[in-house]
Design brief:
The complex is a heterodimer. By secondary structure, chain A is α+β, with helices and mostly antiparallel strands. Helix content of chain A is 26%, strand content 24%. Classes of the chains: A alpha+beta, B alpha+beta. Bound molecules: FE2/S2 (inorganic) cluster (FES) (2 copies). One FE2/S2 (inorganic) cluster (FES) sits between chains B (93-98, 130-133) and A (205, 256, 494).
Chain lengths: 763, 158
């Protein structure tokens, strides 16, 4: 049977769209049983302290309080909350409740009660005496600091990531190709700059939440707003020290994740309550908690040294990334890698590179996974440095990139030596230039009214799943009347993968989209999938769907042939029927489905898994135009144009929305979203009042186009889209501001104050 | 305390706590479309109508609804579906969590403003945050929806 893209590539509506837009009760808190205990967490007011004494009698006496748990009541086995494949690279450095608290907001006690009012009252009645310790707050002084964030002997690193808790190191390492120092010495120009990005919040509209119940078999059922149901199962089992067989995880509709929900931020609290009391329990994080005790982007300081000859050929790239994992190591060892692996390879002709990194513990909120996952930070640094190099050379940064960018067929030494088999970056650049009007606008224009407009450009790449590690799976069943059930273990978190994967299946099976029903994740039912992160779903699980459909077709032909008294090699399947090649008989899919329900010993059900030895990068180009008020330094974004190569867009509507949304988040990071702390380590931006995510008045027109390459190893030529789109705004906008105001902002966000100070020599 | 109100066209009598928020009250009455995204009146997810005017139910006491009319998305299901279809056609309900609040405000805007400009639309809806879509798709959907009456929907509008 021929495989042609018909439904793939068309802008079909998401299968759950109408339920979402009519406000149906489909999210975690909408479906939680009414008799759930309310669970809340008492949080530390200190950045670093030991709990000397904790008295809970008063709290327990509050009418309606069912349980109050402290560090004495939880298992003493350390685990990680990072949703990663086992053995996790993130160190085992957590307990559900620990005697040592490591950031302002760290968990001290868990309270569960019948009503919110009772729980709030009980929280106020818990008496804790702390031995307050000096914290490590500055990540630049954390490594080898005498104050240790994790002095405990049972701290454990499962993978060789260069971690050492006695040095405050969550990971460290160095990778290189060629002799960077020698090449840099012979370069005509060397740019050396340091860039700083903050611990931005994903700020998905649905905060962290989960509810837990015991089923009739005494198993713990966790219904959670998560991107990683199978990892939640393992992590809950580790945290509670119970067999994995005792845990089932269900994922309903998710109100956004962006990586935040790749960490098991909230699930352990109701889980332990239900496990110990047998009662249903629910936790819903407030926005305040989501801001101060969650899993934001790793703050990074990236030092770039870029060497080029006088014609602008980039010859060497040297990167040192210092990453702040905060109090716990979730995603610390892995995010840092992307700061180098997803930035250096954009420049295909460099003779040498070196990438060195340290990931340190501090007494700040623990970091986690956020769309872009380290690439965003690395690309802000490398793309900004390339823009500064261009300015130094008095060269158009687009031309500089055209000379140096990775092209289809290039080997990428800093990307595990993979070949860029599908790469339309050059076409993305050409298209962006044209739609943006780059040549007319570069570099700046004085508007004559105290305002100057400037333009900037940046490129970006990401991966498609983690090579050689991630697993995507699909199960397909043929039912009566010939409709299919597609079961997937990848989590649709609004991204629409339940629909796009069904599109892939429909084209493989030559049927209508409506002939495929999709079942979201339930770990008891769905086939194993690592989860929805690392830009894996379209590419990897999409590939699993293709494989599963191929096997299903073989089974249908087998069964059809049996019903036609032929053999499988004498028949063909066209999506609707199995027919004899000689034209002497046929049986419809409908009849096969129905007949197979009687007197049948051959299951029309298939599961296939998929993994990939490579992780083909999607690419993109972004261009920004800003207007700077030369008096105040205020920056207004006027235009943003982006062109993306994600291979074949499986659903152009959804890839477009992903791109527009990712760009808006990137714009927030570039211009608005700041993270600052009090001297004692308290986060100031603890609400959406202070933490300014862009409103619709803050984003300019975002214009998106696609220039598709064809990735042979992806389903219908697809690569990923989810993450690559967040990376270009920061460097492109920073460069646009530099062209307008002559000020290079190297620490995000780019505020009026910083620009003003730069213009007035107070930088 | 006891309040009497009309919720989505139905007269009801209910016992509430004096400090109960309208958001929690309507959810407890089964109006699960109403969402909470913050505690600081910044996100607009909790938008409902009080006497046909949009209010943030997270910063309105349930007691204030006494003797008045409260409408949630459940109460304007047909209209929600009509506009929602335009959102869905753009794929502009990504996670969908912000959709109910947005739709309540779009429908209120439609009643209040005739032929709003892009600036007016943005201003009217400024309080409705969305973290997923970057707002462009929502704007396309709103334009197409408002244009539908003139008979010409501009599907190419991107
Ligand atoms: S819940 Fe955010 S404004 Fe009401
Ligand atoms: S669609 Fe997710 S917040 Fe708007």
């Amino acid at each position: 049977m021929e495989r042609t893209a018909k439904i793939v590539g068309s802008p079909v509506m998401k299968k759950d769209a109408m339920a979402l837009v009519t406000g149906k009760p489909v999210y975690t808190d909408d479906i939680a049983p009414g008799d759930c205990l309310v669970v809340k967490v008492l949080r530390s007011p200190h950045a670093h302290a030991l709990v000397e004494e904790i008295r809970t009698e008063g709290a327990k006496k509050v009418p309606g309080i069912v349980t109050v748990l402290t560090w004495k009541d939880v298992p003493g086995k350390r685990f990680t909350m990072a949703g990663q494949s086992y053995p996790e690279p993130s160190p085992y450095d957590r307990l559900i409740l620990d005697r040592r608290v490591r950031f302002v907001g760290d968990a001290v006690a868990i309270v569960a009660g019948e009503t919110e009012a009772a729980v709030d009252r009980a929280l106020r009645l818990i008496k804790v005496s702390y031995q307050v310790l000096e914290p490590v707050l500055d990540f630049r002084t954390a490594k080898d600091n005498p104050i240790l964030v994790h002095p405990e002997e049972d701290w454990k690193s499962l993978c060789p990531v260069g971690a050492d808790n006695k040095r405050n190191l969550c990971a460290s390492g160095c990778e290189k190709d060629g002799d960077v120092e020698a090449v840099l010495k012979t370069c005509d120009y060397v740019v050396e700059r340091t860039y700083h990005t903050k611990a931005n919040q994903q700020a998905m509209m649905e905060t962290f939440r989960a509810f837990t119940t015991l089923d009739p078999y005494g198993r713990l059922v966790v219904t959670a707003s998560t991107q990683v149901p199978f990892h939640v199962r393992r992590i809950i089992a580790h945290a509670l020290d119970i067999p994995k067989a005792k845990v089932r995880v269900i994922k309903p509709r998710i109100g956004g994740g962006f990586g935040a929900k790749q960490t098991v931020v909230a699930e352990v609290y109701p889980a332990i309550v239900t496990w110990l009391t047998g009662r249903p329990a629910k936790i819903v994080y407030s926005r305040y908690e989501s801001q101060i005790a969650s899993s934001p982007r790793h703050e990074m300081e990236v030092k770039v040294r870029l060497g080029a000859d006088k014609d602008g050929m980039i010859r060497a790239i040297d990167l040192y990334t210092l990453s702040n994992t905060g109090a716990y190591g979730e995603h610390g060892p892995t995010t840092v890698g992307l700061s180098g692996h997803k930035s250096i390879p954009l420049y295909g002709n460099a003779e040498a590179f070196r990438f060195t990194y340290d990931v340190v513990y501090t007494n700040r909120m623990s970091a986690g996974a956020y769309r872009g996952y380290g690439a965003t930070q690395g690309l802000f640094a490398v793309e900004s440095a390339v823009n500064e190099l261009a300015d130094m050379l008095h060269m158009d940064p687009v031309k500089l990139r055209e000379k140096n960018m990775v092209r289809e067929g290039n080997v990428m030494p800093a990307y595990y030596g993979e070949v860029a088999n599908s790469c339309a970056l050059d076409r993305c650049m050409a298209k962006a230039k044209e739609m943006f009007g780059w040549d007319e606008k570069f570099p700046a224009k004085d508007m004559g009214n105290g305002k100057v407009r400037g333009v900037g450009v940046a490129m970006s790449m990401q991966g498609s799943a983690i090579a050689g590690l991630d697993v995507g799976s699909a199960t397909l069943k043929l039912n009566d009347d010939g409709f299919y059930s597609l079961l997937i273990g990848a989590a649709d978190m609004g991204t629409g993968c339940d629909t796009t994967l069904a599109q892939v299946a429909a084209d493989c099976l030559c049927c209508d989209l409506d002939n495929i029903v999709v079942h979201g994740v339930d770990t008891d039912v769905s086939p194993y999938d690592s989860g929805s992160y690392a830009s894996s779903t379209a590419y990897l699980t999409g590939g699993a769907v293709v494989k599963t459909c191929d096997s299903m077709i073989a089974k249908i032909m087998e069964k059809g042939a049996e019903y036609l008294n032929s053999s499988a090699d004498e028949v063909e399947f066209d999506g609707k029927r199995v027919y004899r090649l000689d034209g002497s008989g046929e049986i419809s899919l409908r009849d096969i489905g129905n007949r197979a329900m009687c007197s049948n010993g051959y299951a029309l059900e298939v599961t296939e898994s998929n993994t990939s030895p490579s992780s083909p990068p999607p690419f993109m180009v972004g261009m920004a135009e800003v207007e700077v008020d030369m008096e105040t330094g205020a920056v207004e974004l006027l235009d943003y144009a982006a062109v993306v190569d994600c291979g074949t867009p499986l659903n152009p509507n959804l890839t477009r929305i992903q791109t527009e949304g990712g760009l808006a988040q990137g714009i927030g990071m570039a211009l608005y979203e700041d993270i600052t702390y009090s001297p004692k380590g308290q986060l100031y931006e603890n609400s959406l009042m202070q933490y300014k995510i862009p409103s619709r008045q803050d984003v300019c027109p975002i214009r998106v186009e696609f220039e598709s390459s064809y990735e042979k190893t992806g389903p219908f030529g697809a690569k990923s889209i989810g993450e690559v789109v967040i990376n270009t705004p920061s460097p492109a906008i920073a460069s646009a501001v530099a062209h307008a105001a002559g000020v290079y902002i190297r620490e995000l966000p780019i505020t009026a104050e910083k620009v003003y100070r730069g213009m007035n020599g107070k930088g | 305390m006891e309040i009497n109100l009309t919720l989505n066209g139905k007269k009801i009598k209910a016992q509430i706590r004096p400090d109960e928020l309208l958001l929690d009250f309507v959810r407890s009455q089964g109006c699960r479309s109403v969402k909470r995204g913050c505690e600081t009146a910044n996100c607009g997810l909790c938008t409902v109508w009080l006497d046909e005017k949009p209010v943030l139910s997270c910063s309105t006491l349930a007691a204030r609804a006494d003797g008045r009319t409260v409408t949630t998305l459940e109460g304007v299901a047909a209209e929600a579906e009509a506009f929602g279809a335009y959102l869905a056609e753009e794929g502009a309900e990504q996670c969908g969590f912000c959709s109910p609040g947005l739709i309540m405000n779009v429908l209120a805007m439609e009643r209040e403003l005739s032929d709003p400009s892009e600036e007016e639309i943005k201003e009217y809806l400024a309080g409705n945050l969305c973290r997923c879509t970057g707002y462009m798709g929502q704007l396309r959907a709103i334009r197409n929806y408002l244009n539908r009456k003139g008979g010409e929907t501009d599907g190419e509008n991107r």
